[in-house]
């Protein structure tokens, strides 16, 4: 909890996954993001929650944190409105940084029945320094624990502790050589990518050292205020990191980039996040005997063989299958038995095998 308060963004992803052991169950997780966009488990300021709107989560968050924004929409709208075109239009609306870019869709009445703060970037809290629309970072944590979900409960707890402990140990060692008072490597890498695109913009000064106007190659105009750390595109305020328009202005004055980034992107904050580490859990031999009799839950075996992989949603993209190629000509669509030879000049020449030795 100290790591979350001191170093992570005030955004928490809520998710759960089913356990595949003998007695089943559900493992709930609360995941936060550090300055490197890495996961920090067990993650207080006003907290922004992100979830897939599972049954009960919405009501619990509203009861315990009535003033905190809760982002959840896409999984719910899919159950009411079908069609890939409509879903594409929804993502375009949710990804808009300004309210005036909001475009009505067929599901307009349904969408406006929900608070726009829960699904549209134009209404997100700027203090969160996070523009995530989905709960994918929590899903990636569920993928990390996929191999331990079928273990017995006691074994699962020990393996889970080892996973988190190893994660903290790996990251605190990785930042040993980082310079204090500087940006984390992922932030520097992002700046380098933005530097490659500054030629697409033209900068004009309005108030020296404070306000500038940036024009893109598409004739779009943006206003930059360096004192307030704002841009009319809203990306700087929402991410807590200079947008491409702000970088075009700042690179002319060679600034200290740390002054224009949120504290979550600083090396010092990253080190504080993982400084406490995690105490190893004791083995079962050192556990105290329970004072009460604990009975296992009722075991109800479902018919058929238990599933190993989850059911995919109808519109979820499937991984591309790699086509099988012939081992002789390296062309797809057949094997070496039915191979008629590749294009002229592409067949490999084998060394002739001698059947007898010259005397």
From TrEMBL:
SMART domains from the UniProt entry: ZnF_PMZ
Domain SWIM-type: 222-254
Region named Disordered: 331-359
Keyword Zinc found: yes
Keywords recorded for this protein, A-Z: Metal-binding, Zinc, Zinc-finger
One Pfam family this sequence matches: SWIM
Molecular function via GO: zinc ion binding
Name of the protein this chain belongs to: SWIM-type domain-containing protein
Organism: Heracleum sosnowskyi
Taxon lineage: Eukaryota, Viridiplantae, Streptophyta, Embryophyta, Tracheophyta
